[in-house]
Amino acid sequence: MWLFNSSVGRKFVMSITGASLVLFLLFHASMNLVAIISPEGYEWICEMLGANWYALVGTAGLGFLVFVHIVYAFILSIQNYRARGTERYAVVERQDGVEWASKNMLALGLIIVLGLCMHLAHFWAKMQLVEILGEEPASGMELIRMTFSKWYWAALYMVWLGALWFHLTHGVWSALHSLGLNNNIWMPRIKCLSNIVATLVVLMFASVVVYYFCMGCCA
Amino acid sequence: MEKTINITLKVWRQAGPKAKGGFETYQLDNISTDSSFLEMLDVLNEKLVSERKEPVVFDHDCREGICGMCSLYINGHPHGPDSAITTCQLHMRKFKNGDTITVEPWRSNAFPVIKDLMVDRRAYDKIMQAGGFVSVNTGGVPDANAIPIPKKDADEAMDAASCIGCGACAAACKNGSAMLFVAAKVSQLALLPQGKVEAARRVKAMLGKMDELGFGNCTNTGACAAECPKSVSLSNIARLNREYICAKFKD
Amino acid sequence: MAKKEQEIAETVKAVAEAAVKKVAGKVADVLKGDDEKIDAKIPAGPLAEKWTNYKAHQKLVNPANKRRLDVIVVGTGLAGASAAASLAEMGFNVLSFCIQDSPRRAHSIAAQGGINAAKNYQNDGDSVYRLFYDTIKGGDYRAREANVYRLAEVSNNIIDQCVAQGVPFAREYGGLLDNRSFGGAQVSRTFYAKGQTGQQLLLGAYSALSRQIGKGKVKMYSRYEMLDIVVIEGRARVIIARNLVTGRIERFFAHAVVVGSGGYGNTFFLSTNAMASNGSAAMQMYRKGAYFANPCYAQIHPTCIPKHGDFQSKLTLMSESLRNDGRIWVPKKLEDAKALQEGRLKGRDIPEEDRDYYLERRYPAFGNLVPRDVASRAAKERCDAGFGVNSTGLAVFLDFSEAIQRLGKDVVAAKYGNLFQMYEKIVDENPYEDPMMIFPAIHYTMGGIWVDYELQTSVKGLFCIGEANFSDHGANRLGASALMQGLADGYFVLPYTIQNYLADQISVPRMSTDLPEFAEAENAVKAKIDKIMAIQGNRSVDSIHRELGLVMWEYVGMGRTKAGLETAIEKLAEIRKEFWSNVFVPGDKDDLNVELEKALRLADFIEIGDLMARDALQREESCGGHFREEYQTPEGEALRQDDKFSFVSCWKYMGEGVAPKMLKEPLDYEFTERKTRNYKN
Asked: Which of C104, C150, C372, C677 is catalytic?
């Protein structure tokens, strides 16, 4: 199966899963913005998604994407480490024009996974999971207010989002590149697009954190 | 007038493919800044021979930046700190008096060390043998002007074709991937009508061979293109991906 | 079992036959005596029909028999790679050898300018005859008409072949191929791929070769160096080669051996050749009875970056195209020259009226675009007179200030930017502001192993192609013709002519390489290596090679005299003695040993130097790349002696320490009239 056996196939899988996750992030982030504009609206969204079949299918799909993305990341990293050979370079210097993020995607990814665990524990476990288990889910707005009013949680979320930003600045254009959607003219354009998407996603998420942290401070 | 510098060299010495290697330190004085890096190594070797020691083994041939024979990972960069040149075109004026220069061989699983700084790059030949050609025999071909080719395509093919097969891309890549090398050849031939006929077969064969030989997976860091002595563009890799994915979906 | 017995029977039969033939051969040799006639095997008939006639009547090998025949091809440059690929495509089993790590490294790759072909795509009146005529004239009427005509004929096929392989030649907006002009021609017939034509053509041939390696029709031996050829009953049968990685000496059998090992320019130590380019394969052929033809014809290229220190390892060529817009000059006043040499003045400080544009002065009609040999000699003449412009006094200016004023910096940068950048990287001076400094350097050797019309040497079954042979360029080669010749030999000539020989070899079984003759040859090679390793003297190989280079440049370089050449022969004898008594090769012979490789090559360079000097001494005339100062017109131009020296000098090896014997192949010009080359008006 070329999606597993060939290097371009493996990159293809990384790209498709990665790009899908970016689309999810865009959806999730715009949903979160509602929490600032209208807390009631946000509650309505939470209720609507809840543990309905489409939300469950979506969640399962997301879980699968994340799982594949992570498993492939580890496979690729191990193979790549081996490909370098047993002896390593004694001197390694930065190359001009090579993004820092591109060389540290696995590390950034690990930070993101850790952040994800924290996030799932804070929100998903108390909302969708409990609903699946047949109990009453907590209020999304309540959870937001509670979590982000604590400075340490807010700070951790910001670190997490920072890692996400770096991951996305490389990830978005790299996904397009791996799918073959690039050439000399589009190279600067998709790199720019990559930065815009990354910044947009992170700003949308971060604004909720900052907004409710400030609200918490004022209260 | 002629300027000279004193330098300290840390050179990787390894007696053979299986031997344990290590760095040796040499002090070289009064090196002319007009000499090339390889001429500096010639001076070192001349000195070693006069001390009745074995000289440092390194690959080199044309010494004008086109044969792709010279290699060397100098102070953390394949072909040294200058851009868009090979080691043989690197001159000592790029270094300062008192500098310590670390010289290592290409490091990649697919490029085993033969001796000292010399590595075995036949893996690249094997990739070429798998499909880096147009399947035409000598004779019986149409007139050279029978198929017009847009200038833009011909120029782009030429840019890809300027690859010298030195191995700097795989040496620079943290993943030990040879994607830029493969992409350059795939691109050159995919851009030309003569090569398009068997483009799908070629890309599958060459990439398959690359994977088989133990090169790593490309993660688009771009280090290959940044260090390429011929400035082969990263977008060739996108074309390779495109060609490969399309070929696989057609199967 | 039966098969095995049959094999043994065949081997026994072959050995017995060999013994009988050996005796018969010796008898024949005795009977033949000394008056050897040189037969170039030129087919009869009108010039334009010779090649067609030859092909129509030559012997061929049928496909089933091709599979039973092995051919060794030594060298993977344009000639070697294209020959190996073409032979394998036809069905022969090919063993290909190169000394580099990959066949793609051969020095053909460094050719910049382009490749000639008589396509007449520009509608400027080009034709096969015109290309033939220009090449004959450019070679100063010292080449064979039939060979050159064939070269011009197949030149068009080369372009077609390369385009089909995916060579990205430069194109015009209409999508058709572009051409540029080159020296020595009045038409635009040069095809090019940026400034990397040699690279692209070689990669084309390499791709064809790679395809055959992938199919198993070519067995590739890289990092192998041929050390000897074994001739049995007058036929080349086996080569002895050293695995450069392990140091092991190995034997390889074939029904025919083809050598495309390039030129011997590195005899001069400093040349534009690659570091590993060498003449050892040629010397091995020569020692086995192949004639060495015209060794004194060496081309000196006028536009190279000057030598700048004792550490220098090679010279870098700047494309001939620079002379289209650059003007060559030295100061008129000796005191200005002195100031330049001492670094007190820069080129731009010398006022216009004090500059001597000597090429424009001497050759008003051609000016800065005179052929390579003429431009090189004129530069040497000025430097000898003390007008050199760098610290060594061995450089002249190539000035673009007038072109920059006339065309603007941008236009000049667009045309020559990459060359200017290359110059700046090496010399660290900005050629847009200070004039470039250039000096002639050894670049190409027209001389080489003698071959007949079939590219076969005087040893049966031993063929020689590309720069390694002497055949097509006469005494001087035109720009963009080397690539043409290499590929013509490899793609379109040798694959045909070799069959005329191989057709008689189909009944010869593959011989075992264990025969005593082969073991004897291997032992001789080993003994030579042991001898070199045992010297343990005090000189490094390179230091002796540099000394050889200085002698060659001084006495066998651009201007040669009788006294100088005699001195050279004496000095070469001293260098030979020094080498064999005082060289030091460290390391182990049974291991990768670069110093040993260099030492073996240097031993041969010394002998080549000697041959060059002898040949230059006997050729009492000036023609093309060979200039004898005694033979020049009152204006200092080359003076040919057609009545006495219209022949190919073929040097025959007579044994170690014995002076070689010179045979002559007369050059009869049936179809062209010899004229004096004139670039003044």
From this structure: C372
